[in-house]
Fold:
Amino acid sequence: MERAYYSAQIEDFVHASVEAVLGELADNNQFALEITQKNAWKQQIELLQRLLPTYSGKIYFEYSIPRMGRRIDVLLFIQGVIFVLEFKVGERTFHRQSIDQVWDYALDLKNFHETSHGLLIAPILVATRAKQASIHIGLTPHNDNMLYPILSSAQSLPDVIAKVLALPKGQTMGVEAWEKGRYLPTPTIVEAAMALYQGHSVEDISRKDADAINLGKTTDAIAEAIRQARIRRQKCICFVTGVPGAGKTLVGLNIANQHMDKA
Structure:
């Protein structure tokens, strides 16, 4: 599954037409495209194409956070630093809810995305019409290469990115290695079910310590028990046991999803 509606090397992105980027975003969008969303994407594209020509790296629009069933507006990977950008187009104020939103996205990557653990992550809330005062950039006290949410206007965003890139980075890696990282939370059954119905693969959101063969055998055994119960017009109860993280929730959701339309 593609993690983002649009992704490209920054050099390719800045030379692409706005219409081409918009077209790919619209094609990959799973929902009805509203004019407000299209206009927001257009403003983000135009701003970032003006801002990024001097940088190399990769850009992702609508980057998926499977556990939360949400998408990051824009993720930038530059010099081994992850920029999590949440845009509030037309906003003049930095609302608490929006600050928490970009903070949650960054924390999710830091804690649950395998190759993001050791990298510097900068969550940035961009209120495009805000009047910028001073820029505050600070590391959390946990020695985990995580910055507190940075509040930025559209005009100040170039300075914010430059100042973050000037910070000591510690661990770094190339974008190809970063993209291979697995997403490893153990979701609650409610979170997993929500993601399943929102079009994500359960394998994308679940850490499972049992190997694929064991999970496959367990799933097949339950499926056979269901088949036999239907043939014999009987009821049966299947108990699946295992250590935390073994994949019990994954097995149950897969079985339920496979047989949902056969009841």
The chain has a mean pLDDT of 87. Residues 4-181 form one domain. The longest strand covers residues 70-78. The first helix runs from residue 10 to 15.
